[in-house]
Specification:
Elements: H1 2-14, H2 19-33, H3 41-51, H4 57-80, H5 86-92, E1 93-95, H6 99-106, E2 111-115, H7 121-131, E3 135-140, H8 146-156, E4 162-165, H9 169-175, E5 181-186, E6 198-202, E7 205-209, H10 212-220, E8 223-233, E9 236-245, H11 255-270, H12 290-304
Parallel strand pairs: 1-9, 2-5, 2-8, 3-4, 3-5
Antiparallel strand pairs: 6-7, 8-9
């Protein structure tokens, strides 16, 4: 009952306010975050310091303040996504080079759209089926609350996005065989299993990276496209696409993961404030037998090719 009251009485009605008014509330929240409510400040400072060891303390604090400003903007924009209209969304979120996806669609080629939690990925989830000719697919894990999971999935999918559970991927793709799909994968969080991850240097530190996108690309023979979301100005974004490969099976173990992770790294280094620094990204310990582990991973991968 409480969840229903929060959603229908407080949250949903508030999202119909103009975004400029919603920003007034999050502006106040931003001031709280940098003064009396230091949300995960130790995590944020540690992540930034380790990622940019050559910067001065003043330069790192500037990234930190801009990050908290961006984070509070995202709260307003994520809430607005529950009620934003199709026309408003397409006015605020555009693709600069959609011809890359169009060309793949004309070849009847399905696509994995890969990137990270950078800038406003929530609006991409909402808009993807409107932006590209491919059927939009999102892979995720259900929330612990069945009510919030149902309501957020309903809102996210109202413009055509098809959300599937990670455990149902194989069955879903078998069912949809022959239809060009574009699957959205955000691959920058910390994997659950360090020994099933791909290990590489990322932002100046050893990092466990999800191997799922690469494994899925090889399994399904889907093209892989990296996307970069830029903030044009407050509440307005543009998305740029970079084709990694049309033929994933022609690439060796680790090539796809290295390529999309390096592209994300470059994006973060150019504009660091728009990545989610409050996430505990580097909580996995490097396996002591990493060299042997990578050899075993490659052997298993090659046997499946």
């Amino acid at each position: 009952m409480l969840n229903r009251l929060l959603y229908f009485v407080l949250l949903l009605p508030a999202t119909f306010l103009p975004l400029r008014l919603m920003y007034l509330f999050t502006d106040f929240f931003y001031l709280c975050l940098i003064t009396i409510l230091p949300y995960r400040r130790k995590v944020v400072r540690s992540n930034i310091a380790k990622s940019f060891p050559d910067l001065t303390d003043a330069e790192r604090r500037k990234i930190e303040r801009k990050f908290y400003r961006h984070l509070t903007d995202l709260l307003a924009e994520a809430a607005k996504s529950l009620s934003i209209s199709k026309n408003q969304l397409l006015e605020r979120f555009r693709v600069v080079n959609p011809e890359i996806m169009q060309a793949l669609y004309e070849k009847n080629k399905s696509v994995l759209l890969v990137s990270g939690h950078y800038n406003n990925w929530e609006w991409l989830i909402l808009a993807q089926d409107l932006l590209f000719p491919h059927k939009a697919v999102g892979v995720g894990t259900p929330l612990s609350s069945s009510f919030w999971d149902l309501k957020l999935t309903e809102r996210r999918s109202r413009f055509g996005m098809h959300v599937i559970h990670a455990n149902h991927v194989k069955v879903f793709y078998e069912k949809m065989k022959g239809q060009p799909l574009a699957t959205l994968l955000l691959a920058d969080q910390s994997p659950t299993d360090a020994r099933r991850s791909y290990w590489m240097d990322f932002l100046n530190q050893p990092t466990a990276v999800f191997f799922g996108p690469e494994a899925l690309a090889h399994q399904l023979d889907h093209a892989v496209v990296f996307f970069h979301i830029r903030k044009v100005k407050r509440g307005y974004y543009e998305m740029e696409l970079s084709l990694i490969t049309e033929r994933p099976k022609s690439l060796e173990w680790g090539e796809i993961t290295e390529k999309h992770t390096r592209l994300l790294e470059k994006v973060i280094e150019e504009e660091p404030s728009y990545w989610i620094w409050s996430h505990k990204r580097w909580k996995k310990e490097v396996p002591s037998d990493l060299t042997e582990l990578k050899k075993m991973q490659k052997e298993r991968f090659d046997k499946k090719r």
